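Entry:
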Amino acid sequence: MNCILMYLTQRPPTNYREYDSYGPLLAMNEHVAIFAQNDKARFLLVKKPYNSSSMWNCTLDYVRIKHSSTSMTYFVYSVAIGAKQNSSHLAFAFMDEDFLRRVFLTVVFLEDSSTDCLVQNRSLALDLTEYPVFEDSVVAMDPYGTRAYSIGNFNGSCIDLVTKETWVFDTRLVYGEWNGNIFEYYPKAITISKDHQIFLVGQLYMGMINEFHTYLVVLNFRELRNATKSLHLEVSTFNYGVGGTDINRVTTMSIALDESSRTVLVGIPRIDTVIFLAYDESYYPKITEKHVSEQLGIGFGKSVALLDEYTYAALAYVKPTLPWSRSQIQVR
């Protein structure tokens, strides 16, 4: 009986086989690529991933990442890194659980070693167990890696890597009013600008009509403890129904940001659609174009990336199999 109880307290969530439906398990910039391998309980660290001489044999075991003397990483939900970090400041963030299902926002700092591999220098962990934080939290870092954020349905959190200050906040207080409507917002993807404007895409439950629609939300986090919502914008009227609260390949979304062209790209694979938005100096976006895949039911927009002002890439499933078995990337 004791063995059974231990197993139940230590197992990952019931839909962990959805793999990366909780969020990206791969994060990278020009200096390092980090891949969370939950099946092997380790991170794969690829130094200089765009270089032909990149190293693929460097790993960081979860058990080496300690939150305290009695707690260490056991299962990782989502990984993030700053895209414009320099080689002297390499750090990545992730949402994880330990063996006792305690939840953390964790940051790991990396450094070079004598073996030429990147290794852990130190880590910071914010214990979120006492808050209503679930595995649906989305995780991101600003481009220069000065802060790590997680935002979920009820709570958000932040670690300032420079000052080591931490903050946990009620997202409903930051969101404020939604036109007087009864609401619950379920973020599914996140990206952050260099001056800490947070772009979220997710499902908004609208109590007056009892439907779940896709909304883009912009939060201003320039002043960490005085965060406000700049706006919310409906980008799709498709009703997910109560399934909008689920975490799986049907409800997943994606988002990308190009600050040079002030463009936001949103992928909604449930309706095989990619949406383009342009924003002004106040970070107020408006929809400029929609691209619906000619082939439907393929999860077009599962992941999106802006290559330049005129070119983007979108990931789509070829057929409904696990995401790593058969998929394709379309470049437009």
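The first strand starts at residue 26 and ends at 28.
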